[in-house]
Amino acid sequence: MFYDFEKLKFHNRISLIYNDKAIGPGILRILELVKETGKLSEAYRIMGISSSKAWRIIKNAEEDLGTKLINTSSGGVGGGGSELTKEGEDFLNKYNSFTNEVDEIVKNLFDKHFGCDIIE
Amino acid sequence: MFYDFEKLKFHNRISLIYNDKAIGPGILRILELVKETGKLSEAYRIMGISSSKAWRIIKNAEEDLGTKLINTSSGGVGGGGSELTKEGEDFLNKYNSFTNEVDEIVKNLFDKHFGCDIIE
């Protein structure tokens, strides 16, 4: 093997497309953070985007997927909160389990194909 | 499941990095075509790039990887030809076997995670 395996890395990116429209990383990150924090405002603060941008991302994704992904209640005791709809939760879970399994398997395949053979 | 699985697709892109420098799709395509056709001129014709661009891609990749990837002989009976060096062939084979296996497995994982459950 002529190359130094320590210096060889890979980068793998998966994107989803629904009805010919990309499901961007933005909506998936928003779903993740809303699930974690229970607050949409916290999600876009962490992501460093404006509330109007966050809403646009959500509206576009909901329109593309044809379903509501996030429920938001404003006011009430303790202020408003957000939570994923059943569909939002379902989609996020599938995406996470898919990409986590891909990451792990691709890492193993990379080692298998490019890693050091014992006999060389 | 709220979405129509027929409309859901994925796109997976793998890139390799050596010594913090990207090994672009260009050099891998050139290696592939030189192996197939035995002629560098045929490789860049099929790719629709100039010979100077092809040479630049090769020189950069050879410098980055620290090894010669393609041998070219000019003239002789039947004109000149090009062939992969042992290292070029080795690297291309590893890349192809890695990405082919990734493609197949990611396709299966996509079906597994997003595909239709029988009970729903």
Please tell me about this protein's structure:
Two copies of one chain form a homodimer. Chain A is an alpha+beta fold and 120 residues long. Chain A is built from four helices and four strands; from the N terminus they run ββαααββα. Chain A has a two-stranded antiparallel ribbon. In chain A, strands 3-4 form a two-stranded antiparallel ribbon. In chain A, a hairpin with a 2-residue loop joins strand 1 and strand 2 (21-23). In chain A, helix 1 packs across helix 2 (40-47) and helix 1 (25-37) crosses helix 4. The N and C termini of chain A lie close together (7 Å). In chain A, 22% of the residues are buried. The A-B interface holds A 1-4, 7-19, 65-67, 87, 90-91, 94-95, 97-98, 101-102, 105-106, 109-110, 112-114 and B 1-4, 7-19, 65-67, 87, 90-91, 94-95, 97-98, 101-102, 105-106, 109-110, 112-114.
Output the keywords.
homodimer; 54% helix; 120 residues; two-stranded antiparallel ribbon; two-stranded antiparallel sheet; elongated; 4 strands; alpha+beta
